[in-house]
Amino acid sequence: MAPPPALTDGVNTPYQLLEDVTRALWMPALVCSSGATGRRLRDLPAWERALSAGQLPHAQCDFDDAPALGVLRRLVAELGLCQLTQGSAPMVGQVLRAMLWHLDRLIDRPAGEPRALAIARMETSFRAAWEQQRQGWEEVLVLFKSLGDLPDLQWDELRGRLCSREWVEARRIGELLAQLRELAAFIDGIGRSEVVATMPPAEHALPAPQAPRPLAAVAVTTHLVDQPSEVRGVKRSGQIARMLASEAAMVRHPLLQRLWRARFAEQQLLTYEDEAVLTQWRLQPDARRAAPSALQAQPLGRGPMLLCLDTSGSMRGAPENVAKACVLQALRSAHAARRACRLLTFGGTGELLEQDLALTTDGLNHLLDLMGQGFDGGTDVQTPLERAVAHVASDPAFAQADILIVSDGEFGVTPATLEMLRDCKARRGLRVHGILIGDRETIGLLEVSDQIHWVRAWRRYATDTRDAYTDGFSPVHSQSLTALYFPNAIRR
């Protein structure tokens, strides 16, 4: 026989209120010795909802222990914990567990000691603990800005890494991403899962070989300043070979020679202005005539990514910093859109490491290990490309993935690997994107990439300022040197 309803209600009361409490809070909520169990179980859901919204609950939600909860309520506001808990369920649970733990310690006081003194001691302990923890969580949120919820990261797992050299390096790379907005937008649009209106801005995109545009002869003029040619006028400079006769007459004059020396020192001599103009005719796609492939399906983007990272010795220094920023941005983009992302770091022959980029404990450890790693070794791009193509062909999670190569372009591709890539592009719609961190494009990068984003001012991101141009100067005037001087070198 079933027990009478009144007896059943008496047994369950007040534990039926646990239904509205998060499972992780059941144990600390039941064993806490402060207040009344019924009020505590009733008020906990209100605290969860309020902290998740970045606010404090009503003052009446005091667990039936108004003096102690009033102190903790004031501390939560003073320490700014509501900003950390807003939209983050793990942080809400962390704060509430800490509150319940400190409340439960109030009963462990010497006999005869006033409870107000124990509450004051609890206030000091809670403040000291959360001032340290808040600083650590602020560093976490700064590094993973825009990632949203951190479901699998707990404070006890992160606490041992916040003071490490790898974490400091990751913070520095995270600050670097604020200066690379175009690069972040380029990485965010990689993949083939969603239809997008326009692709992210690219600094160099190769025309589709299957549908070339009509060609037209275009005159390209190059102005060579101060080169022997026709005289265009007079200017002030310090070039003695081009000074006017009126200036030369002062050189031998007993008084005017002082004036000439002063003008020469100040670069104020009157000189001829010469400028040679070199005209070259080049064949370029005719923008006035539509290409046969102009009417195509809408472009795809924001899908899974296979990130091939070059860790060779030529990437050491400023290119290494930009490459690590690409990895961190790939993690951000993948986590924000719940996309799969796999990192393939490659160096010399036999040096290939595969790992998933995800905001989990293992993923964070892999990321920090990469941030603390120094790039060194050779360059073997064949193996990571073959592995990436195998993932696209056999792994359903990466069937709509694009390959992203982050490198300085100093590599070559064998004909067999190149043919394998072209076959996968034709059969499965694979696209290969490249991020060029260097001064010039190379034939190897051009042959495998459908779209290239060129980081021109990579020198300004050097850790050692002796290896960088502070003004972002690059000695190369064009990204198409190979096509300019060796037009038949690139195989279509």
The CATH class label of the largest domain is Alpha Beta
Given the structure, what is the number of helices?
18
Q: What profile does the largest beta sheet have?
A: 7 strands, mixed
Major sheet: order of its strands? 2-12-11-10-7-8-9
Low-confidence stretches: 1-8, 145-152, 199-210, 290-297, 465-477
- Helicity level, as a percent range? 40-55%
Q: Beta-strand level of the residues, as a percent range?
A: 5-15%
- Given helix and strand content, the structural type is alpha/beta
**CATH H-level name of the largest domain... which superfamily?**
von Willebrand factor, type A domain
Query: Ends: how far apart?
Result: 84 Å
H-E order: HHHHHHHHHHEEEEHHEEEHEEHHEHEHEH
Q: What's the structural blueprint in terms of helices and strands?
A:
Elements: H1 5-12, H2 26-31, H3 37-52, H4 66-78, H5 81-85, H6 89-104, H7 115-143, H8 155-158, H9 165-176, H10 181-188, E1 194-195, E2 204-205, E3 215-225, E4 231-237, H11 245-248, H12 256-265, E5 269-285, E6 300-301, E7 305-310, H13 318-336, E8 341-346, E9 352-356, H14 361-371, H15 382-394, E10 402-407, H16 415-428, E11 432-436, H17 443-448, E12 451-454, H18 481-485
Parallel strand pairs: 7-8, 7-10, 10-11, 11-12
Antiparallel strand pairs: 1-6, 2-12, 3-5, 4-5, 8-9
